[in-house]
Amino acid sequence: MPWEKSFDVAEAVDRAKFVFWSKGFEGTSIANLLEATGLKRGSLYNAFDSKHELFVKTLLKYECEIREDKLAQFERCEVPRDAIIGFFNLVIKESLNDKDKKGCFLVNTALEFSIHDAEVQAIVKAGLRDVGNFFQRMIECGQARSEFREDIDAEETAKVLVGLLVGIRVLARGALDASSLKAIAKHAEQILV
């Protein structure tokens, strides 16, 4: 008789997402995943071939539900400066309200980058590239509207902004206080005007 799922796979992925997000891939044990999902070992492996497969599903879920949603929210902003600064301010607010200091799942995965295979590396690169593309579009739009300096290279500046954003996400986990994080965001704005 074939194995039948007696649990909600999406819910299991969601619960596993928070474990991987907090502990990283290497720091997460099968026991952690079983406890978080409430599954038995056999059910976990029948639903997901491996810890790696479950990790990939959780990272893609994060990308789809959290990062992409944030970018879409700011993409609709009519003033490019407000979109960029609003995005930075939201990240700082989320970071300061993150009681567990878990940071950004995508950035955390980027920090573990060397241990991951090509599939996970591609997800990380695509996510960071999407953020950079968002910044570049906003910069180009702002330049067209004379909101930003015309002499800055939009593509290179977008990469700098991604670097600052990643820095905020990492440093907000305990190395810097609110005023220091806000100073980084202020510098991001000063690059543009």
Can you characterise this structure?
The structure is a single chain. By secondary structure, the chain is mainly alpha-helical. It has a domain of 135 residues: Tetracycline Repressor, domain 2 (Orthogonal Bundle). The chain contains nine helices and no strands. The longest helix is centred in the last third of the chain and has 27 residues. The termini are far apart.
End-to-end Cα distance, whole Å, is 67 Å
What integer is the average pLDDT?
90
Based on CA atoms alone, the radius of gyration comes out at 19 Å
Low-confidence stretches: none
Output the CATH topology of the domain at 58-192: Tetracycline Repressor, domain 2
How would you sum up the global shape?
elongated
Major beta sheet summary:
none
Helix content class: over 70%
Going by CATH, the architecture of the domain at 58-192 would be Orthogonal Bundle
SSE order in H/E notation? HHHHHHHHH
Number of helices: 9
Strand content: under 5%
The secondary structure category is mainly alpha
User: What would CATH call the homologous superfamily of the domain at 58-192?
Assistant: Tetracycline Repressor, domain 2
CATH class value of the domain at 58-192: Mainly Alpha
By DSSP, the count of extended strands is 0
Characterize the quaternary organization of these chains: single chain
